[in-house]
Specification:
241 residues, alpha+beta, 9 helices, 4 strands, 44% helix, globular
Amino acid sequence: MLLVVLLPLLTAAKTPVEQDILEQISNQRSPYYYTALMMRYTTGDETLTDLDYHYLYYGFAYHESYKPLNSNPDAEQMMALMLHLDPDQADQALLEELLRTADAARMRDPFSPKILNVMTFACEMLGQREAAAKWARHKQGIVRAIAASGDGLTQKSPMHVLMFDHAIDMMAVEGFSHDQPRIISRTVEFIPLLSPRVVDGKKRKGIYFDFGRVYWNKPDGYTYQRDRTWQFNNLKPREYK
C-alpha cells in the first residue's frame, strides 16, 4: 500500500529544490547534466539511481518539451486502443499499434507512469522481454521519485507531480480507489481515498499532491478542463529484478 510503503522513504525523502535542480541539470560537469541523463534514460541504462530519476523527472520542468497544458492525442488514442484489447488473447497487430501509439504519447510525456505501464504491458505481450524490463524499471524509478518528494499526508508535505494525470497514476499504480480530487490551494490538491488507511496509528483519508509546476508557464487567459477518471484498466504493474 502506498501510504505504508512511503514510511521507510521519509528519511531519504528528496523534496525538489528548484535552485538545486536547475544547477545540476545545467552544469555539464554534473552527473545529472540533463542531456546526458536523458540519453541514459532513453537507452535504458540499468545503472540509473533514485537520484538520477529525481533529476530526470523534476528537471523535465525546465525542458522546452515540457508543456503540461497541451493535449496529448496519442495518449488518448492509446487508451482508446486499450478498450479494444483482450489481455488474455491480444491480437498482435493491435498490440503493435498500441506500442507505436504509446511510444508517440511518450514523446510528449516521457515520465508518465500510465504510458510506461502500457509500454511495459505491450512489450511483454509481444515477447519483447528486454524492452518490457526497461520500461518497467523506468516506471518504478519515476514512481519512487514522486513518492520520495513528500509523504503526501498533509498540505505542507505533498508529493510533487509534473502533470495532473501523474497524481491519478500514483493512486492507480498502488491500486487505490479514490474519490474526485479537491483543489486545496493554488498549487495543492487532495485526492481522498474511498477507504481510509491507518498509518502509524493514524487514519489517513487521502493524499496531497503539489501541481504548481503545471502553471509555471500558463498562457494568459488559459483555462483547463481536467478529466480525472483514468484507471489502469486492471493491468498489474510488472516487477522485474
